[in-house]
Known about the structure:
This protein is of the alpha/beta class. It contains 5 helices and 5 strands, in the order βαβαβαβαβα.
Amino acid sequence: MSKPVTIIMIEDDEGHARLIERNIRRAGVNNEIVPFNNGTDAVRYLFGADGSGLAQRGRALLILLDLNLPDMTGIEILRRIKENKCLKRSPVVVLTTTDDSQEIQRCYELGCNVYIVKPVNYESFANAIRQLGLFFSVIQVPRT
């Protein structure tokens, strides 16, 4: 039997975070969502006090990652996740306003699974998040 997937949401915009969670719930996804509004706290949680990532060994995680955080870049967090033996299999969905093609390519090269540009238009963004919620309801996360 597979373990329930915990969704780690790293998003500094409180309005976006509420919208993301609300639409994930509307899509019928009831998994635990652990929110972080900065990279420092998220990295501490993901990698543990010793920085090894062993604290997450055996847990099924799905990471929602904004690239534009107040204290560090999402690119740095993505790189660290994908280089860590305990976390590298965790799917990472980048959710950001950055639509620069070089930035998108960099994220895929580092190992992100999905890159979603947050539309500035509220309704378009809500629709994209609803679709993401449907995606979460069928995703299979590999064991670490």
